[in-house]
User: Fold this.
Amino acid sequence: MSNQIVQGILLGGYYALIACGLSFMFSVMRIINLAHGSLAVFSAYALWWLASRFHISPFVGLLIVLPLMAAIGWALQRFLLERSARGGALLPILTTFGLAIVIDNALFEQFGADTRSLAPYIGSLSYDSWEWPGSIYVGKLAVIMFAAAVTLLGGLQLFLTRTRLGRSIRATSEDPDTAGLVGVDARRANALAAAIAMVTVGLAGAFLGMRATFDPYTGAPQLLFAFEAAVIGGAGSLWGTLLGGIVLALAQTLGAQVHPQGFLIGGHVAFLIVLFIRLSTSGLGLRGLLRLPARKTT
Amino acid sequence: MSAVSTSPVIERGTPASRISAIAVVVIIVLLADAPQFLSAGAVDRMTALFIYVILAAMWNALAGFGGLVSVGQQVFFGLGAYFAIRLADAGLNPFASLFVSAIIVGAISWPMSLFMLRLRNGEFAIGMWVIAALTHLLVNLDRLVQGETGTSLISLNVYDAGARRATIYWLALAAMTALLAILFGLLRGSTGAAIRAIRDNEDAAASVGVRVTGTKRLLFVLAAFGIGIAGALWLATSITFQPKTYFNVQWTAYMIFMVLVGGIGTFEGAILGALLFFLIETWFGGTGVWYLIGLGATAVLFSLFLPRGLWGTLEERFGLRLLPVGYRVRLPANATDSDTVPTSQQATAHREKA
Amino acid sequence: MSLLAIENLVVRHGLLQAVRGVSFAIERGETLALVGANGAGKTTLLRAIAGAHQPTAGRVLLDGADITGVPSHKRVGMGVALVPEGRKLFVQMTVEENLLLGKTAGRPGDWSVERVLDTFPNLKPRRHAKTGHLSGGEQQATAIGRALMSNPELLLLDEVSLGLSPLVVDRVYASLQGLISSGTTIILVEQDLNRALSVSDKVICMLEGRVALEGSSKGVSRDEVTKAYFGLHRKSAGSVPA
Assistant:
């Protein structure tokens, strides 16, 4: 059982990776990007294509794919989200949902229905494991994934608190109008935040491809995992995201123990229970739930 | 200037709307007679069209009027079919099962609304998707459904194919007409004013005493009930029930497409959107994946460049109103010489809509 | 050349015309007091000068250059800084972080976190506190300090005494006196007429979006301003644009 708990915690690293971009974009732009999961799958396909076609290791491929994802994030904000956010809070949901349909089906058009994996291109890493005391076997990949999540979250935290750009993004997220009045280019800060979020999505896509298989329609469940982890952890804090990811993964592990098909059910149920408890205790709705301050409007 | 000429005229209908009211009756009568003249395939297609209209109108009721964008409405579609299967399996007449099932779906949506309606915007949207995913998994656990293998509404097979087809057609037509009439009545009645107030500005509506949550709940339950019927009818036309098909998010994608293209928040827009979707599916459905890419891309483009949809844009430009659910205030053109009134008059003319 | 010139500026909030054809100019080193009743359009005018509202008509000239279409963040770089009404601090961030944000535009100058803390000594112990936890006076000092960090040529102050106790207001104005004597150009909105007249060189009284009275602070009587304030001047003085 302790073996499964360790596996669950490590899997939580993956959920934290996929969730941090979603909650980051939500906390800065107040937009939930429904194409989030599809973009992660897109990144996985891009790495797979580089690996199968040009024999580029996925880790090297990231050097190409992550800048591409940053560019996509920038363009997404500038050309789609910025415009659709002006139409109110509901429109970006529809825009990004439409985008998700386009991406999923375009991937299907290009790569077909076959499931793919990056595992064949990372050598023994996909099955190597370390033995920990108590005869616990942990996959090297899972440990790397967890370490990557911690590094990414920590790096993001440092960037947001210690750098001028990070402060600009935080100021924009709190009050874009006033941010402009102190000299912050809010449009640029938002585009930059979207670019950063997409880099994290690209990384999450890489790990998705390495630890499992994917097909063109894998995006939707990834979006749900990301959303659940972000809400369980409270999107206001980055470390909360890690905790949320771990809780989600442990709930899934527990679900799988209870019933052979209980893996996903366990995660969804845990999410709803957390939501229910928070909603009934806070009475604030999700805004309070995510520990975000109400955005000032002028 | 006399008092008569300055007093605004309040209208509920327009000459065009009175003609269209008669047209609606004629169309329904013609549609009811249609199975006598149509081929079997055409009857099935028309049934599909009625189901699309229901889906579009119900999603529009939720999003366009209630301000609740959900990407998990497939949960009610799937449950509508699932409960019909269950009820028929328990021995209920299969046709009766379709409607009893929808009532159960509506009843389930009530407690669900207590919880879900406290989420806002994007959180509600994906929250509903999680509910749909979870419900799908739970339905898969039912032995009767046999996981993704699915099952069939076998008891429907005792009816002769022709009679069955026509019956389902009439049931779909009746369900569509009734749901549209309910929605129309709701929007024209006292709830309608509350709904429009919420659509325009939820916080302001709450501050002047509009029962925001109660009204939203009503729309949520109505949408669940209507989409439940749609799911049950779809099951009746296709007989087989595979959870994956019914709990597929593509149903919500279709709803969003229809409403976004037709005109979100307009009664006629959803119907127009369903018609267009039906035609597009008939012509391009065969192109498979490109068809879906096209639907998604169209939804993106409409959300960016024509967020009011076709009907909303036409209505705004030409003051068109066929099935008026609102009030129209007409101020006499020569009302006054102050410079503020013409502005507010234009504003009134623009703001007032279905 | 005037540092700032406003020409026939019209600003709308939706259907409401908040500023209706305002023109004035301010010279380098001058202090201009904007007075007027609530809703007279003072805040909207300041926000339009800072670039937070796009005017529907008219021009804003800075040093003779037309900046009407320039967004707010670029205007900070050109030397226009606004201390907004209600302070509008980033409450999730510390005093120091708020001040550092003022540096974003990167204008050269001698304002630094240290100098702001020297100017407002009450902020020193609060340097790493979140601004949401500060007192009103400390918050106001932070807001002014944040604007100063951009080394502005033109400082716009919107009701800096709002919600502060008289003692704290005195302290804030004492610090402002230093700025005024150092030659910073200032436009300030102030409800307290005596204070407005005493710190400024020039006064403009606004009424329903228009300039009702414009004159030298030493040259106008309190009575004249009060009349303009309530719109009682119209019949006597024929100089009001209609």
Observations:
- The beta strands of chain B are 9-11, 151-152, 240-241, 328-330.
- DSSP finds 16 helices and four strands in chain B.
- The first strand of chain B starts at residue 9 and ends at 11.
- Chain B has one domain: 35-288.
